[in-house]
UniProtKB/TrEMBL annotation:
Lineage: Bacteria, Bacillati, Actinomycetota, Actinomycetes, Streptosporangiales
InterPro entries according to UniProt: Aminotrans_3, PyrdxlP-dep_Trfase, PyrdxlP-dep_Trfase_major, PyrdxlP-dep_Trfase_small
CDD domains: OAT_like
Protein name per Swiss-Prot or TrEMBL: Aspartate aminotransferase family protein
Single GO MF descriptor: transaminase activity
Family note: Belongs to the class-III pyridoxal-phosphate-dependent aminotransferase family.
Species in which this protein is naturally found: Nocardiopsis codii
Key words, A-Z: Aminotransferase, Pyridoxal phosphate, Transferase
Length: 405
């Protein structure tokens, strides 16, 4: 907030591919795909054309009650066809946080409808980020997002992100008959880019199944080819009860998100009076947002960005690991998905008072956008980035580190 107050603001005027321009006409490499979402790169005219066509035909109309529209149905069917969820159903929203609210309420309501209303407890992971709405704030794995709002949603707890045993211990501490669901990102994103251990999700899926706890995957960052597949979690060979998505589904050209729910969890709401899931939002199933998403998915499929991204992941990993020997760097986390985290040493941060904000500013002054969090610099470029551009991204980050050293 101090940076913003000092001004002036950094005004972005135009974007194309992996590049941005500011008001002075200076060009920057978008090393973060905006906020983790612009998977197909900026300036795709075919998405603009699809939006124009749809908005000129049916701009928007509610999907309340039995209302529906072609783009919402088509998008839902397409997502369901690729989701690693049994007998999948889709609920559409306008973003990630809204989808987390939907998933959390659905989980609690599911247990109420199933005659186990005491199952309300929600477990999440340290470093996990699930947006900043009510439930998302309450299950945040980062204290800085939770503190200062009075009493949050009750019956939540956070377990260490790298230990399936800790999840099981927490379920037993709370009492399995009180636990509704467990939330996890395939790779923790905003919390610092933490890939899971090899067997983590197999163990988690087994534990959730053993105690009847709903397993909810937050793929808001990891979906739509950022991990070489549709929802990220496929990489670990498990099938969750719900998958939450947003960001890359439309590459952010228009706001869109949602959840894929297994039929087992969705069906009880249709059985019997009084079991309805009384939840929804004004822009759910917005036809123009859905048209943007479908044009985005067309690009992902036609350009086979699912395969391309695995190559990008390897090149980015090799390039970023080159920073591991930098004297200011404690650790480089990369190699699972097109994303990376460069953690500064304790000595640099606390000993010498170097901030990641300074490194970010030095990188931006050199024409590259990275993302600072308290102890790391994060990168998550558009999937269309070239090897040369990856080298430029990483060598500029290296120069920024040198500049603050
Ligand atoms: N979940 C994850 C994993 C995210 O990274 C984010 C946003 O960064 C969200 C949820 C929240 O999404 P939104 O900002 O669209 O509400």
């Amino acid at each position: 907030m101090n940076t913003v107050a000092r001004g002036p603001e950094f005004m972005v005027t135009r974007a194309d591919g992996v590049w941005l321009w500011d008001t002075s006409g200076d060009r920057y490499l978008d090393g973060t795909a905006s906020l983790w979402y612009c998977n197909v790169g900026h300036g795709r005219t075919e998405i603009a054309d699809a939006v124009h066509r749809q908005i000129s035909t049916l701009d928007a109309y509610t999907v309340y009650g039995d209302f529906s529209n072609g783009p919402a149905v088509e998008l839902s069917e397409r997502l369901a066809a690729h989701a690693p969820v049994a007998d999948p159903r889709v609920i559409l929203t306008s973003g990630g946080g809204e989808s987390i609210e939907t998933a959390a309420k659905l989980a609690r309501r599911y247990w109420a409808v199933m005659g186990q209303p005491e199952r309300t407890h929600l477990i999440s992971r340290t470093g996990g980020y699930h947006g900043l709405h009510g439930f998302g704030t309450s299950i945040s794995g980062m204290d800085r997002f939770r503190n200062g709002y009075g009493r949050l949603v009750e019956d939540t707890s956070v377990v260490p992100h790298d230990s399936a045993a800790a999840l099981e211990a927490e379920i037993l501490r709370v009492g399995p008959e009180r636990v509704a669901a467990y939330f996890a990102e395939p790779v923790i994103g905003s919390g610092g880019v933490y890939p899971p251990r090899d067997d983590y999700f197999t163990e988690v899926a087994r534990i959730c199944h053993k105690y009847g706890v709903l397993f909810i995957v937050d793929s808001v960052i990891c979906g739509f080819a950022r991990m070489g597949n549709w929802f990220g979690i496929e990489r670990f060979g498990v099938s969750p009860d719900m998958v939450v998505f947003a960001k890359g589904v439309s590459s952010g050209y228009l706001p869109l998100g949602g959840i894929v729910v297994s039929g087992r969890v969705a069906d009880p709401f249709y059985n019997g009076e009084g079991n309805a899931f009384m939840h929804g939002t004004t822009y759910a199933g917005h036809p123009t947002a859905c048209a943007a998403a479908m044009a985005n998915l067309d690009i992902l499929e036609r350009e086979d960005l699912f395969t391309v991204s695995l190559e990008v992941e390897r090149h980015l990993d090799v390039a970023l690991q080159g920073l591991a020997s930098h004297p200011l760097v404690a650790e480089v986390r990369s190699g699972v998905g097109v994303m990376g985290g460069v953690e500064l040493t304790e000595e640099a941060l606390t000993g010498r008072g170097i901030t990641t904000a300074e490194v970010f500013a030095e990188a931006r002054a050199r024409g590259v956008i990275v993302r600072p969090i308290p102890t790391s610099l994060l990168v998550s470029p558009p999937l269309v980035i070239t090897w040369e551009q990856i080298d430029h991204l990483v060598s500029t980050l290296s120069a920024a580190l040198d500049a603050v050293a």
